[in-house]
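Recall from the previous chapter that SMILES is a line notation for molecules. Here it describes pyridoxal-5'-phosphate.
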Amino acid sequence: MPVKPKAYQLIKKELDSANVVLVAVSKTKSVEDILELYNLGHRDFGENYVQEMTEKAARLPKDIRWHFIGHLQSNKVKLIAPFVQLIHGVDSLKLLKEINKEAEKNNRVIDCLLQIHIAQEETKFGLDEEELDSILKEFVDLKMENVRVIGLMGMASFIENIDLIRREFRNLKEIFRRLMTHDSRLTTLSMGMSSDYKIAIGEGSSMVRIGSLLFGEREKK
Ligand SMILES: *Cc1c(COP(=O)(O)O)cnc(C)c1O
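With both inputs in hand, we obtain:
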């Protein structure tokens, strides 16, 4: 499936006018496909497998901002710590500690988002509000210097019920608002993908992760 430059221009314009950051999700797509968007001026790309992201980063321009959007295992943090821009799916204190350790080795401060479970489905990763509060408390107490929690990430249910999706995003925005009252440095709410990004923007998303609308459908595994 080819890259869709027209769709890219339209979506980019729509997001720019709403002040929303576009992360182009390039998982399973080739470095040539990524370069096509790069040559249109795009710099933020999202991947959800460590090895795939690392291999692509090695072959592509160094000014690309790589977003890790998948489920990250602690033992793989060291592979992306030298270059990753933002880790979207952090869901445990153990992982935050590991990111802090590897960031320190690389003399970096790595930005992270905590993933909140907002969907009806049982299978998705993420924290509930109670777990979120306890992780944040311990995070503050531990004074990690090489990791910054800059916001939240969430995925809505994969269904066509627009009202339900809207309620899930609204719930995430509410949680984000509540945290902002304690920490005004929070900047980023990553919610919305190809099928639901318009709803997410309506509910106050500041960053969307869009793959298939830009790169075409992915091959089913
Ligand atoms: C694959 C993926 C996306 C993008 O999905 P599309 O439906 O192709 O836009 C967004 N977020 C996460 C976490 C993903 O894994």
